[in-house]
Amino acid sequence: MTAVREGSGVLTESELRQVDAQWRAANYLSAGQIYLMDNPLLREPLTRDHIKPRLLGHWGTSPGLNFVYAHLNRAIVRRGTRALFVTGPGHGGPALLAHTWLEGSYSEAWPEVTRDVDGMRELFRQFSFPGGVPSHVAPEVPGSIHEGGELGYSLAHAYGAALDNPGLVVACVVGDGEAETGPLATSWHANKFVNPETDGAVLPILHLNGYKIANPTVLSRIAPAELDLLLRGYGYAPRYVEGDDPVAMHRAMAEVLDDVLGDLERIGTSQVRPMWPMIVLRSPKGWTGPATVDGLPVEGTWRSHQVPLPAVRDNPDHLRELESWLRSYRPEELFDAAGAPTADVTALIPRDTTRMGSSPHANGGMILRPLDLPDVGDYAARVPAPGTTTAEPTRVLGCYLREVFGRNAEQANFRLFGPDETASNRLDAVYQVTDKSWHAELLPEDEYLGPRGRVMEVLSEHLCQGWLEGYLLSGRHGLFSCYEAFVHIVDSMLNQHVKWLKVHRRIPWRRPVASLTYLLTSHVWRQDHNGFSHQDPGFVDHVANKSAEVVRTYFPPDTNTLLHVMDDCLRSRDSVNVVVAGKNETPNWLDDEQAALHCARGAGIWEWAGNEDGHEPDVVLACAGDAPTLEVLAAVTLLREHLPEVTVRVVNVVDLMRLQPAAEHPHGMTDAEFDALFTTDRPVLFAYHGYPWLIHRLAYRRANHHNLHVRGYIEKGTTTTPFDMLVLNNMDRFQLVIDVIDRVPGLARTAGQVRQRMVDARLRHHRWIREHGEDLPEVRDWSWPG
Questions:
Q1: Where is the signal peptide (predicted)?
Q2: How far is the C-alpha of 211 from the C-alpha of 580, rounded, in Å?
Q3: Are residues 183 and 329 in the same domain?
Q4: Which of 1, 78, 226, 652 is such that its CA lies 20 to 30 A from the CA of 319?
Q5: Distance CA 574, CA 258 (A)
Q6: Do residues 386 and 313 share a domain?
Q7: What DSSP character marks residue 341?
Q8: What per-residue confidence (pLDDT) applies to 346?
């Protein structure tokens, strides 16, 4: 291990004693959580009965996290720094639990875990124990906005929390294994999007402890000069703290941390993009733990990653080694007779909301202010009658969002995130009031780039998602716009955020935060020009698997329904909303009032489209999505022309979760509501935007499910015309008429000629597009007859 300079005396002798005491106390508590369920202060010899029956947790990263946290505490006390702690190696949960217990924020959040010997026993017992808390830095841990169970997202979350938070330092520990992931590698570039005047600062602390769960890490094994060049190339000025001697390391860390925090204070007044400071901390994995176990090296190796002494209940030698290890921290110096931390341990712990465990930025609902939203009616498309006007839904939404930016400019709590697609998705009206955030070189031909821009564009869906999650969890609002096919890149990040919100919702001291809302556009039915690679509506299937109390999915069929859905999403809390909407010119079906009512219902009968006139329908034509809605209505016009005697009901679904039973989703319908829409015994032909089997999954318990036939995307795609996409997937208007004939009892015997005309129309379509390169005139020029 490289020797370290002792520094220039930044630490006084009393501070050295105090920061070391805090570090030792946190290390003791971290190890105790992994092993002990009783005898928390070792006031009697350790026995097998004091040990947990199942040993779970991650020791290896915990000492390094404890070291960083203790030194940040000193900086907060001595410098008045306002800090938030993001734990990249979130599997080091024992460390954050230990520090928040020492500072008292844990006991305030969970009063049953008192700051005394009984509370310590409970702290130990609950860790990775049935009915207790997870081994990771989960929502249960005060001060956390980052779970870290899946590595790669810490730096993106940290930068998201720093945006629009001037004066806040987000200290982000990046594990050296985590640094190998794609999302983390991209996140280093987030420093090009931070404005030193209006945003907070992120202090990355790259913790090189040498090993992952079973292998060495890349950044710990490359030459120091190569690592330095890499980090400088990312735009950082790294400072190094390296060694294994605690005294020397404390002195070096205090000096370096004071220097970089001073640099950040000076950068806060900078007019140009700086070289941002960061710290590279190189310390042994499992530092201060057992050096060897059963003759094999442990400290400083991958063997310390989880439980260094795995057989303490059954191996007397391991039990003796555990007791020796725990006593090496000298707990009698760290905790008083009642089990509370001693004065030396708490001397450099901040107070009140300056404690990192009590930071309001880590419980964002405490500081969340509602958005000032405009009246949807001011932006609604004019619809004298259904289908008589057209609009590009997302372009109109862009005008609405422009007003959202304008109304909330002073409180600076709303941003739009997306991977280089804001203009492509036709939301570019927002550029009338804000630029895209940019702090790199500017050229004369550049448009809408500036250091105060509030549109965050970078060609990394991971980074956009991570920014937005950090921004929301620290108390602000945002929207993520993305091509539908490529939002799958963040499937796993969505998983983690939904899980976070599910737990967050049931923690009483966690305050509601703004929902994460996706706008998925450039969707499958209008990616005919880009081809098969851009045609995938499956993100909604992924979302539908997640916790029902969190996820919502919307398919607004036109412009005004999109406006009302988005208005509702921006007002919502503690949810993940997925809104799928087109950007191309499409008919407007509902006026503002009708759209408001329809969105409030989530699903409803479009009386103007059907011909029931008080009679029971022969068939129900249902739809969800803008392209399916258009095809259903076009099929209705064909039925009116060719089979006027068939009674048709049209049902449009804008909130897909309405299809689930009320007992399974908060938005779900009762059986009575569902039957009133879809009947109990009539054929239901459902044209759906995505993969058809999802509709069956949502509705399989309904009385009329056996009569439900769904058309949707069946993975047939290519570069072709818009209508051919529908024909390829059997969701075109002609096929829907064929389906009616095939499924309405008796029609097959009397409507054979009509069925043949529909088959012929599909064949004629194939010949036409191959000769002319565009859709049939009767399709291209179709409009609702009114």
A1: none
A2: 43
A3: yes
A4: 1
A5: 38
A6: no
A7: B
A8: 98
Residues 6+ apart with CB under 8 A from 418: 425, 455, 456, 457, 464, 480, 481, 482
Domain region containing 747: 602-780
Question: Do 526 and 346 contact (CB within 8 A), yes or no?
Answer: no
Instruction: Identify the three-state secondary structure at position 209.
Output: coil
Q: Which pLDDT score is estimated for 4?
A: 37
| 64 and 203 co-located in one domain | yes
71/176 same-domain check: yes
Task: Return the sign of the alpha-carbon dihedral for residues 713, 715, 721, 724.
Answer: negative
Rounded Cα distance between 409 and 402, Å, is 11
Residues 622-663 have pLDDT tens digits of: 999 999 999 999 999 999 999 999 999 999 999 999 999 999
Residue 162 falls within a domain, yes or no?
yes
Helix (H) or strand (E) run with residue 649 in it: strand 648-653
CB atoms within 10 A of CB 218: 13
Best CA proximity match to 774, nearest among 424, 521, 529: 529
pLDDT tens string 563-617: 999 999 999 999 999 999 999 999 999 999 999 999 999 999 999 999 998 899 9
Contact (CB, 8 A) for 218 and 210 = no
Spatial separation of the C-alpha atoms in residues 663 and 708, rounded to whole Å: 21
104 & 134 share domain? yes
Q: Are residues 579 and 615 in the same domain?
A: no
Query: How many domains does the chain divide into?
Result: 3
**Do 358 and 381 fall into the same domain?**
no
Q: What 3 state SS string does 406-458 have?
A: HHCCCCCCEEEEECCCCCCCCCHHHHHCCCEECCCCCCCCCCCEECCCCEEEC
**Residues 204 and 120: beta-carbon distance below 8 Å:** no
Cβ-contact 104, 115 below 8 angstroms: yes
Q: Mapping DSSP to helix (H, G, I), strand (E, B) and coil, where does residue 719 land?
A: coil
Residue 342 lies inside a defined structural domain of this protein:
yes
Quote the pTM value.
0.96
Residues 622, 628, 629, 635, Cα dihedral to 10°: -80
Instruction: Provide the CB-side half-sphere exposure for 171 (13 A, CA).
Output: 26
User: Each residue of 126-185: pLDDT tens digit?
Assistant: 999 999 999 999 999 999 999 988 899 999 999 999 999 999 999 999 999 999 999 999
Q: Domain end: 362, 392, 410, which one? A: 362
Tokens 């030396």, residue located: 344
Instruction: At 22, give phi and psi (nearest 5°).
Output: -65, -40
| Exposure string for 656-666, b = 16+ CB within 10 A, e = fewer | bbbbbeeeebe
Query: How far apart (Å, rounded) are the C-alpha atoms in residues 674 and 436?
Result: 45
Gap between the Cα atoms of 403 and 770, Å rounded: 45
CATH code (residue 349):
3.40.50.970
Between CA 767 and CA 698 the distance in angstroms is 38
Does residue 270 have a pLDDT over 80?
no
Contact call for residues 157 and 472 (beta carbons, < 8 A) = no
> Is residue 136 within 8 Å of 388, Cβ to Cβ?
no
